[in-house]
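S1.2 Input.
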Amino acid sequence: MNNENKLIAKFRMLALLALVVIAVPLATQAQTRDKGASLEPTGTIVEIVSSANAVSGASLTNGAQPFEVSANITQQPQTNVSVVNIATVPQGKRFVIEFVSFFSQLPTGQRVVDWKLTPATVSHSLLITQQPDGITGAAIFRANQELRLYAPPFGQIQVQISRSSNQGTGLFTVSISGYLEDAL
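S1.3 Output.
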């Protein structure tokens, strides 16, 4: 099985898990609005794969704590825009976002129109690259970006995803990593 087939199989398994509510314990005081899977009013299913948390036992030289969150987002048929809060920054901390990755599998012929990350009040769009179609003919898109963004204490880490059609089901995964530092 080549890497693309493995990735597609893994993504499909994660999409199935999104249909079941999964309780994910938090490793710190960080809270996520969506623990496990939930159906958003917009027809979007959100599954927080790894809850927003500091990586246990790890610290950087300046006392900051590595921090990461990953979410699977499923757009149901008749939905082509989703806005999802995937994490809340803990009190007294600032989240310095250093890397973001994005994966999308859409029905044949569809495309990702926009993907935005909003760590505070300003949205940032990422360059999305279309990949060769999957074995099933699914349209595949990816984005990986090293960057530096800041989310304040109690800031919501929000993702907005738009696709070109509301037909069929759209599958998305977003992962964000960086570190927590004391807010000044």
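S1.4 Remarks. The CA atoms of residues 83 and 184 lie 29 Å apart.
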